[in-house]
Amino acid sequence: MSKHDEGRRAFLIGTAVGAGAAASAFVPEALAKNAHEVRSGENAAAPAEPTDAMSGGHGAFFNDDDARTMAALCERLMPGEAGRPGATNANVLNYIDLALSGAYADHQDFYRRGVAQLNAHCLKTYGKAFHGLTFTQQDETVSALEHGKAPEFAWPTAQSFFETVRTHTMEGMFADPIYGGNKDFLGWQLVGFPGAQPLFTEDDMHSKRAFTRVPIVGLQARANSKMKG
Which DSSP category does 217 fall into? Predict the structure, then answer.
């Protein structure tokens, strides 16, 4: 992983930790209407390729081409590395896809135009769509968006598109899995957030050590537990 990737990951993770990893209330409750069942599995041992997202996790809003672009963009905003999950591992694409078909439906045209302008910029600059670029070229493109140096953008502006996608990538990485991202609690594990535990003992509350007790329980699991009870 490049120093550029490490710096970006450190910034995003630091932001999440600084906000108390507000995962349980990170997004509007309306997104729960679009939630998929939380899937269990082992932690990712290596970063997933953005193309892995095409095996599932989109279709509520994105078509295949836009999904490839968004999966690649989210991965560059939150890149994975061996033993440390990134946006693709955590199924961030699925989170954004579901959100755009529900609570964030007012962003649909924003995303359609943004993705089209992104690929227009990449085609003019590199001769390929964003998902077909090298990581270096993708990072150059992300930097161009961040600093408003992508002249193919009109509305949304390059900076507005960058900031919105970065925000939604953070949400998909660290929100409760009920909203479709944070697959297998990978985002929470990344920042050491224990999730909505059924009970914290007095010792837990006074301990200065990292909380490691399992299992991590999300909103979906708590809801299912109440229904069975």
Answer: B
- Residue 196's identity, in one-letter code, is A
SS3 letters across 154-191: CCCCHHHHHHHHHHHHHHHHHCCHHHCCCHHHHHHHHH
How many beta carbons lie within 10 A of that of residue 129, not counting itself? 18
Phi (first) and psi of residue 217, to 5 degrees: -115, 125
Place of tokens 């609690």: 185
**Residue-wise DSSP of 66-90:** HHHHHHHHHHHHS--BTTB--TTTT
Provide, rounded to the nearest whole percent, the portion of the chain with pLDDT above 70.
Answer: 69
State which residues of the chain have pLDDT below 50. 17-46, 55
Q: Coil, helix or strand for 195? A: strand
Residue 35, helix vs strand vs coil: coil
Query: Which element (helix H / strand E) includes 13?
Result: helix 3-18
Angle (CA) 61 66 68, round 5°: 115
Name the helix (H) or strand (E) containing 12.
Answer: helix 3-18
Of the candidates 164, 193, 172, the one whose C-alpha atom is nearest the C-alpha of residue 94 is 172
**Is this model's pTM higher than 0.85 or not?**
no
Helix residue ranges per DSSP H, 32-157: 64-77, 92-100, 108-126, 135-146
For 228, the 3-state DSSP assignment is: helix
Structure tokens at 69: 């672009």
